[in-house]
Amino acid sequence: QVQLVESGGGLVQAGGSLRLSCAASGRTSAMGWFRQAPGKEREFVAAISRGGGRIYYVDSVRGRFTISRDNDKNTVSLQMNSLKPEDTAVYYCAAHDGLSVGRSPIQYDYWGQGTQVTVSS
Length: 121
What we know:
There is one protein chain. With 121 residues, this protein is mostly beta strands. Helix content is 0%, strand content 47%. The protein is built from no helices and 11 strands. Strands 2, 4, 5, 6, 9, 10 and 11 form a 7-stranded mixed sheet that branches. A hairpin with a 6-residue loop joins strand 4 (31-36) and strand 5. The termini are far apart. The mean pLDDT is 96.
């Protein structure tokens, strides 16, 4: 059982930046970030394969967010620039042991506890 721990959330003004990090307790395959705003379903944000050769983003963050990973440290990060109020949500790190780089929450086996990101206008 892999445990995931996120860090780096907080309050930022629109146009600002935040960097989220997630530390895994063991080796994982694909890793991703999801977010959930109040009253909404959990939404895919970004995902990366173990080797980093496959990276996917939801259209609303492409060009503003960058996902990366360090396999030596078992970490994945999400650099978020040009933040908008609509980016406000709890952000979750996720991972699984399979070969696919999923964009659906059901494809992921392990989840972090979530970190709050609030963007003020």
